[in-house]
Here is the input.
Amino acid sequence: MINKCKEELKKDVFAIVTDNENKMKRMKQLLQEKYPDLVVYGCSAHYVNLIEKEVTPKTVMKHIVEVQKYFRNVHQAHGWLREKKGLMPQIPNETRWSSHSACVRTFVSNYHLYRQISTDNDDFDNTIEKILNNVGIYREALNLQDQLISVSNSLDRFQSDSTSISDSVDVWKKLLVNENLLPYKHCFIKRYKQVIEPYHFLAYMLDPQYIFQNLLTPEEESVAEDWIISMYPHFFPAVMAFKIQDESYFPKTMFNSNILKEFKTVQWWRIMEKKCDKIENVPNDFCKFLISLHSCPASSASIERIFSTYGLVWSDLRNRLGSEKAQKLVKVYRNLSCTKSQNQINYTED
Here is the structure.
């Protein structure tokens, strides 16, 4: 496929992001062996979704899910809840991100309605009533909600089309020091080490948005520097110059706080590319490399949204729709969605 892109489409493949299933991990290893300069990494959103399951106590969730299923699936109980104008109970779904958080959130929001319904109706299920009368489960749900909100918010950011791999480092770093998640810090450290590659550190280190709030450790910076030396040694002086904001390489005005707020990272490097044409110290392809690096999304969520769009377009009612027309409709739908986004970054060029 990579060769096909180069030969038939005349496009270079800079990076590949996949989910973290075992076969995908093996594929990443094979790709890196065959194409050493290819940026290949795992999806941060998938790893955080795994953490969401890991930080959710099964004993507590068992009771919460039992209550949620009762009010969602039992017709009479669901009717009682609708009369009280409660939220639709959510149930964890293995293929739906943030579903654990949504389950706990709706349980906590509806809890007092659940209790009221149980006392108002004599034919209420006794097993569910016992769970609702256990205040300890509700307290555990409250604590769990605080933890899962932080994870869910991070997951939402990872799924965004505008979140790059440098942004993903920032999100992971903040998760590692989140006070609500300290009991599960070992889980986050484990996943952090699994998902973050040297080029994540490099992207973060060379992101103007984070130049004044660098959260990398000296060891992580060394990993990034070692990678750039091994892959693109002629870039190393420019990397060091960026770190110290050397004016002989980069105009001082570009590091002004107002400029950094005005332009997103890819835009900033595109402007720098124009300016560096007149500066001999900066390698010709350095800025272009960083534009590509900062265009790498943090997750594979964008691709999965395309699959979902295909499901909407190529439905059972439109099963005679040709594949070519379906492809065009999906492209139109996705492009229209992109134009509505205020913070859209184009990761591909037509």
Remarks:
- Residues 135-159 form the longest helix (25 residues).
